[in-house]
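Model the whole thing, not chain by chain.
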Amino acid sequence: MWRKPAGDGQTLPPGLVERWKAEQAELRAKMVVAPLPDVPRYVAGADAAFVNPGDGPEGGAGRVVACALVYDRVERRAVEVAHAVRPLEVPYVPTFLSFREGPAVAEAIRKLTHPFGVVCFDGQGYAHPRRCGLAVHLGVTLDVPAIGCGKSRLIGTYDELGDQPGDTSALMHAGEQVGLVLRTKVRTNPVFVSVGHRVDLPSAVRVLQACLTKYRIPEPTRLADIEVAKVKKRVLAGVA
DNA sequence: GCGACAG
DNA sequence: ATCTTGTCGC
């Protein structure tokens, strides 16, 4: 006996996708691309995790756990950490990631009190079908400089790049460069960098390279990933 | 029409 | 992203 594909394949409210597309178009229109004067000392990072992902809309038990932090490049450590937990409203639909984890991530970022020059997101920015990935969506919404740094590709094509840290390849889509594929570590898959808001690609790449240590992912994002895992454990343990 | 598809 | 232990490698 066959079954409908478990996990996704869920029926979304009629017209929701169209409304989402319209919202992405509006946000995309407000995006600003400009170089950053200098690589800021304080770079924020954010990430999200899920509790009972499958229970999405119906189950009611699904939760989105988000964490945002401010990383000090000089002391190489986080100087502030904030988090947020919100109910999981929608399933994951490719190209609409922002609507699933965006609200929680935005709430966590808004809780930060320590100043920062730019936020690094775990996902695409301009390298999106409608040029409105997570980094553009939240960067514009919060009107804060933002960079998209994904661990895998959403759209675009690129020529194979060199195997040395710092080697790059242009990420192309529909005849334009939407981002840069960057090798951050030897014998490791590259990351996908793209503009979010109030930055340009060269600035974004400089910021990321200034935030790299011994890992593939820039420190702000890596530390946020570690923090969000801790918060998730506390949520699972029922700690308030 | 047939894949691909951030986290 | 999440389901999941140990294990091969630097």
